[in-house]
Specification:
Largest sheet: 5 strands, antiparallel
Structural class: mainly beta
Low-confidence stretches: none
Radius of gyration: 17 Å
Oligomer: single chain
Helix content: under 10%
Number of strands: 5
Amino acid sequence: MKISWLNSETLRLLSEAELASTSTCSIYPNPANNEAVVLSNFRVEAVEIYDMSGRMVRREEVSAYELHLDLQSLASGSYVFKIKTVKGTIEKKVVKQ
């Protein structure tokens, strides 16, 4: 019989920022056409959309757990969505068709 002991080196609590980054936040559909839906466990305060060169192409200030974003004005390509919640910021890559 083998017994393992936990000590301070093997046991670690997650900080709020780590918890926020591992929390459930999803964007669908991905790839998206004209609309993307953002769902979060924490209240979303803002969504920033960046193109692949790092230029911010859109910013939405909100206060919701579910957002429907109109993507019709975006060109086809890959984008990074920075979702700012009350517990931290989560980045997701989204493809616009």
